[in-house]
Write a structure and sequence with these properties.
This protein has 489 residues and is α/β, with parallel strands linked by helices. 33% of the residues lie in helices and 21% in strands. The chain contains 17 helices and 24 strands. A ten-stranded mixed sheet has the order 7-8-6-9-10-11-13-14-15-12, sandwiched between helices. Strands 21-20-18-22-17-16-24 form a seven-stranded mixed sheet, sandwiched between helices. A hairpin with a 4-residue loop joins strand 13 (284-286) and strand 14 (291-294). Helix 12 (311-326) runs antiparallel to helix 13 (331-340). The longest helix is centred in the middle third of the chain and has 16 residues, at 311-326. The two termini are 27 Å apart.
């Protein structure tokens, strides 16, 4: 656990007692604060009381006695309207923050000589894979690494700074809204496409939340920005105007690839590039067609990397490579880490095989853009899609319907998706277990190597508490049909 200093002997309101809230309360208490907890749910309050925390109804509390409000990222800060605790905090001039800001304060209080480096990742898609992949590469290189945040372990539940050399943190737009002093050594923005627009008041507000990752960046720190979309270029322009250190990441270099020099020939052919390459200081990191190059130096072919198929995974690999090199990992160690990565659960994860039929769990694809990444990675699929649809549904995927041998539609979005699919073969399955059984039967009848792909392009909340539960239900359904589980790692 990371103890949070700065609030010794002072009352701190904590609202929202999910994973981040309870963890924040523990970290505050460890730092000497007096956390006062509240949640709208009785079960949350009961858990807090069972751990010995003070539980107090914040609707009637004296807010002038609080030093801060620690707000769950699930509670809105501004839109559609501020949460009632935010109104009360602002009326009493109480600062509002989240767990990432507490993490930043704890790090700032750590002596510089023993302060770990921080790699932080945000973006619409790819951030979880990039986080897990970066952590894996650093660990394989022999560093003491802690991975968490919006993925896996809550950031304040990670090991204390004295036990860590590098923190690798996934950060959501909701969490970034609640930060003011977070300043990672390497800040990564994978990409930006429309998402969570209701919470941010539209695209401009959503991008503004993502930009907060760079709000306190200084010239000695590094920004890695994906520029395969126009929003990424806009962020790069802003950072350049502030004269900050920026590397762009792309997988879409137009025209023929420029000539690149293999690493082995670098000293002989381009000695001028050697110092920057050895220091891990790059301007352009290019993973077009899976050829990883940095400023004209050819690094590796990503086709050989385990569990990293497709253009989007080439982008993830480019981010992880650049981040690892920036914190001191050698070229050889960084490449070895990419090649051995076992993959991320629920993101294009092969969970089983039934003869020549492979079951791919991409439950984390909760919007159309994420599903696009999976659909472009296979020549043909039996596609399971649906759930609680995002704005636009699957309208943006019509150009990929040619790879869909047949679609199996589940959840609230089933009828709407059926309308969008039109003449593309499809059936309304309603539930995931039915969809898996139907898809497996059709894939087996088709003969040869086939893919049954769960890539819902939807949130899970109509039928499951989260995408993890949906992914595990897919895995169970495949195994119940007799599929042989695939062991990773």
């Amino acid at each position: 656990m990371i103890a949070v200093p700065g609030f010794e002997g002072r009352r701190v309101a904590v609202f929202g007692l999910g994973r981040s809230g309870i963890t924040a309360a523990r970290a505050l208490h460890a730092g000497g604060a007096i956390p006062i907890l509240w949640d709208d749910s009785v079960s949350g309050r009961m858990q807090a009381e069972a751990e010995g925390f003070a539980v107090e109804d914040l609707t009637t509390a004296d807010w002038s006695q609080f030093a801060a409000l620690i707000l769950s990222p699930g509670a809105p800060l501004t839109r559609p309207k501020p949460h009632w605790t935010v109104d009360k905090a602002k009326a009493a001039w109480v600062p509002v923050m989240g767990d990432i800001e507490l993490f930043a304060r704890a790090l700032a209080a750590t002596p510089e000589a023993v302060r770990p480096k921080v790699v932080a990742i945000t973006g619409t898609n790819g951030k979880s894979t990039t986080t897990a992949l970066t952590g894996w590469v650093l660990k394989q290189a022999g560093l003491k690494v802690a991975v968490g945040g919006n993925i896996g372990i809550g950031v304040l539940a990670l090991p204390a700074p004295a036990e860590v050399e590098v923190y690798v943190i996934e950060v959501s737009s909701y969490q970034l809204d609640l930060t003011t002093g977070f300043s990672p050594d390497v800040a990564i923005l994978t990409n930006v496409t429309p998402d969570h627009l209701d919470r941010h008041g539209g695209m401009e507000g959503y991008v503004a939340a993502k930009r907060r990752l760079f709000q306190t960046q200084t010239p000695e720190r590094l920004a890695l920005v994906g520029v395969d979309d126009d929003w990424g270029w806009a962020v790069v322009g802003d950072l350049n105007s502030r004269r900050l250190r920026v590397s762009t990441i792309t997988t879409r270099t137009p025209g023929e690839r420029r000539h690149s020099v293999p690493v082995a020939d670098l000293e002989a052919e381009r000695p001028d590039l050697v110092p920057a390459f050895e220091a891990g200081r790059f301007i352009i990191v290019d993973a077009t067609d899976g050829h990883l190059t940095v400023d004209g130096v050819f690094v590796t072919e990503l086709a050989g990397a385990r569990s990293l198929p497709g253009r989007h995974n080439a982008q993830n690999a480019a981010f992880a490579y650049a981040a690892a090199r920036a914190v001191g990992v050698s070229n050889a160690a960084a490449v070895a880490g990419l090649m051995s990565f076992p993959g991320l659960a629920h993101r294009m994860e092969e969970v089983g095989r039934l003869g020549p039929v492979r079951f791919i769990n991409d439950s984390k694809a909760t919007n159309a853009d994420a599903a696009r990444q999976a659909l472009t990675s296979y020549p043909a699929v039996f596609w399971i899609a649906g759930g609680k649809a995002k704005d636009g549904g699957i309208d943006d995927l019509t150009d990929l319907f040619g790879v869909v041998t047949k679609a199996y539609l589940i959840g609230e979005a089933a009828e709407a998706f059926a309308g969008t699919l039109g003449d593309t073969p499809h059936v309304i399955s309603r539930t995931l277990d039915v969809a898996v059984a139907q898809a497996a039967e059709d894939a087996k009848a088709a003969g040869g190597d086939q893919i049954v792909l769960l890539s819902p392009a939807c949130a899970s909340f109509d039928q499951y508490p989260d995408f993890e539960a949906r992914g595990e239900a897919f895995r169970a359904a495949a195994l119940n049909l007799g599929a042989t589980p695939v062991v990773h790692g």
